[in-house]
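step: validate -> pass
step: tokenize input -> pass
step: predict -> running
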Amino acid sequence: MKVKKLKIFSDQKKLVDISFEIKKSLALVGQSGSGKSLTLKALLDMLPSNLRLEKEFESSISLKKGEDISFIPQNPFTSLSPLTKIKNQFFCSDKKKLELFTLVGLDKELLERFPPELSGGQLQRVVIAIALENSPKLILLDEPTTALDTKSKDLILSLLKSLQEKDKFMMLFVTHDIASASELCEEIVVIKDGSVVESGKTSYVLKNPQKSYTKILIESNFTNRKFRE
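step: predict -> pass
step: emit ->
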């Protein structure tokens, strides 16, 4: 999927002006306010009504959420109805639910529980299972590990990577966490103030940053975590 043009305006002010291509797994990274969340909302057709969007895509998939595209939100604690059993938050058959639970490594008994009875890591696996219901060709991820502890974060990243390799869907991982992006994505786009600062293979960009902005992001992310080549 190629985003040939994506521009977002507030009145006459340009907030975002970027282009990128999702070949397999792409991380869109930047500090808060860089434009990455607006970009994600634009792809999901969820921009506020006061913003204007200009876009040009080249894609063989449907760009409607729920068809070829699925979305995994930031916080699993708020993305599910707390008063509804897990099994009733799916729209597929019982057989498919069991298959999806097996796929994400969850015990089928959890289907009978309510979201508050599960841990953060378990809830995020449920959200991933729901995202896989329609066998999407593209999954958009909005900081999916932010609300998790380190152990759960590593498990979710490992799960997403193995699922992507198995099912061959494309991923766009929107995050400020370059350390997580390096573990999950083959390519990276660094944005600042709504513009692309640099992009390329994740391993190359992280080892050879050309811009001071990228260097600062890397240094702040890898203080306590080792970069995996």
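step: describe -> The chain is about 30% helix and 25% strand.
step: cleanup -> pass
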